[in-house]
Every structure is written in C-alpha cells, then in structure tokens.
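Write out this protein's structure.
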Amino acid sequence: MRNECRDAAGVGAVLEPFCRFVEEFLGTPESEQMFPELRQTDRAVWSRIVAELGAGKLVEAGTLPQVELALLGALLFVVAGKRVFFFSGLPSDFAVLGRLLEFGRDTLKVKLGTATVADRRSQDEAATEKVYDNELVVCEFPAFLEAYHQDRDLVKERPSVAVCCEAELCLYDARLAMFAGKTLRALAAVYHHTGKKASWAEAETGDTLDLRVIVRDFERVCGVSSYIGADVRAELKQVYADSLAEVVRARKHGPGFRHLVFKTRREKHEMLSRQAHEAEGDVLIFHYAEETRNALSERLKSAGEKVMDISNPRELIDFLRMSGTQKRVGLYYGIPPVLAQVLPERPAVTAFLAEHLLFPHHHGKILAFLHRNTVARSRPTLCFSLEDPLFGLTEKRSDFATHFELIRFTEKWDKHRQVRRVMARSIMATLRRVHRAALNEESPVFTVVLGGQPKPKKSSKVKKTIGRQLGGLCFCGSGKPFRECHGKRK
C-alpha cells in the first residue's frame, strides 16, 4: 500500500487507492476491533469525509465515528509523504485510539509517536524533540503549543499537516495560548474576531501565541467535529480564511434542544425538578454550576428520586450501561465524552441541560453524545434563567419584561409552553448580539487554565504578566475574571 501511494503525486492521486485499501481491510476479521463503527458506515459516506479532509476542509460528522474518520484522514496524508500532527479538542478513548494507531503502525508501517504534557515535564528536551521526527505525531494540544513556543521552526522543518478531532475546540476555544517562561499556563477564545490587535498583547516578550499565526506554517489544516454551530462556523471562516479550505456542515442533524426561559433560578430549579420527577425511566441532567447541582439534588431527593452525582466520563458511561428497572436521575458536570466508543446498547433516557452556555457549540457536544449513546424518550430540554451567570455581562434584564409578560398571559392556555420557547430564542438572540459587541480580542474568554507552577528566572515580571492575563473573562459568561470565577481554587 505505501509503495503504491508513493508512486503517485499529491493527496488527490493517493485518495482512491487508499480508500480501496481501507475498504478491503474493513472486510477482514482484524478490522472488527480496530474500526467497529466504521464497519457499520457506508463506504460512500466515510470516503467522502476522508476526501474532504484531504482537501483541507473542516467537516461536521454528527454522530459518525469521529476518531476513526480523523485518523484515516491523517494516514491519507502520511502515505502521501506528509508529516501529520494529530490533535484532539477533547480526550479520546485511549483503548480505541490505541487500536487505531496499531493499524497505522503495523498495517501501513507508519512511524508514529505521542507527545504529552507529562512527557515534556519528565523527559529532557532532546528526548521530547525526537517525537516530532515521526511521520504521525499524536499530540496533546498543550504539549504541541509548548514545543512550538520553544521552536518556532517546528512545523516548517518539513511539509506538515494538522488534523484535529473536535476541531473547533482547538481552533476556536484555544486560539490564544499564554505562557509563563516555557510553561503553558492558559488557553483562551476570542468570542468575536474583529482583526484588531489587543492592547494587552505583549508580542515582543513572546508571552502569548495566536493560533491564527501558527496554522499558517502548516501546508494544510483540516479536521472533524461532531457539531460546530453557525456562529462558530462564521468565525472560523473569517479567522482561518488563509488556512481552511471550507467548513462543511453535516448532511443531517438530530433533534436539538427545546429552550425554556425563566425569570429566577428558583423557578428554573422547581420546573426542572418537577419535569425530571414526572419523566418515565432514567433522567440525565447536565449542569455547570455547583449551586444548580445542589438545588436539583435536594428537590429531587425530597421527591423520592434516586439521585446519582456523576463526577467523570467513566461514571457517565457506567450510568448509561446500568440502565434497569429502577428509575435514576443522574447529575453530570461538564462536556460528556463525545469521542468515546459508542455503547453497544443505547438506553432510553430523558435529558436536560440546566444552563445555557456562553458558547452554544458546547451544547452540540451534549447533543452528539446523546444521539450516539441514547434513545430519547422526548426532545432534550435546555433551561435557563435571567439570574444565571450568562447574563452577568449585560444590565439589560429589564428589557425582557415584555417577554415575560407575554409568557404570563399566554401560559394560562398554552400548556405546551410554545410561547415560552419562542421568547427564550428571542432573548438568546439579543444576548448573542451583546456578547459579540463586548467580547473580542480585547476581552479574551478563558477556557482552560493549566496547573503546575513555573520557575522562571524573572519571576516578578512573569507573575505580573500572568496575573494580567488571568484577569480575562471566564468562559461561563458571568462577566467576572476567570481567576475569580471557575478558575478559583476550591
């Protein structure tokens, strides 16, 4: 296979023999463990996505096996003679990824290596730099950013391609990388790109890297994502116009959230608890605030429900696997494991999201997880109130009085809450306009702050720089600095 492709010139010429080889391999018993979901996918579907990746596009894959598709795209570039950096915006199932890499190493004879933050901390620089000599480098995104920060010619040394899973979580959510010495300390998003240089940026000291500049060193940048969203699609097209050929929408989306808005958190908690109590079978509630979890847990327990506080992705998968006769209500914090292998049997659940997030494309990750791993008893519901942190950036809560007057008047006869759902959409459209005006390069939104204390030579200067950087706004939309909100040490 490798020899056949090396005789061809360019990715386009390699594509057909590569897809033919993969199709033949999928018919063998060995592929059952390596590509369990891809075997269930039509050849026309997966080959089209691989071709789009080869053309340098970012593709919405919906519920398709994202890791398998992205790795095929990466291997396509490898057999065409390129060095590939393989990134992921969310943690992958290491067992699944390991089996896929085995296919590349043993079947296609690809030289591959892995680059992690832990390796960079525990090994000397010479050992970590050798990893990037491989044909396929599977990187933790922070590890790559640290390596690039120290060697700006890392990508330029040879023709290189970047392939991403949950690509917009790398390209959008982690656009700005902020350092203390050699150590990456924080990642931040720019909610709305204006093209203006931020006054806080200290380009001469090298404390901040903009991914918009980094990706220009790659020959091509491509990736796969479960769901991107219209606003983020538009931002990616504008920010990475020189690097991304196209952002391709999914051919088919599952049902989205129905939105319900309330004046107060108490009203939201009471309604959500009541609907969860009245629902048949298991209920799964996603939340992002400790106050929400405590309020819902207390109300549901007092109603006689069995409440399970789910603290990590493995427990979430176990919750779904153990679906039985006794009803349970699971409370899960954060984004679910979208890249985990799909469950063999999909349980029926009723799902809720208890807060509207600042970044709506994060809602899509929850939807993708639900569509892949559950059977919906009803359309998932997103509940939010005007007292949620999302409204911390605006003082226009009084502007929504008319919306709630309409809700109050119509719900006497509108038992399906249709007007409340329409008003929720209207309020969020107004809030998005406020956020687009307020959140730009001047006000980055912190999405990740990494642990570990750096030991720089000029500690006072670095502390001052990082202190100023962490004064950026928190991702939840509260309007508070990250260090005073979700970045506060517990």
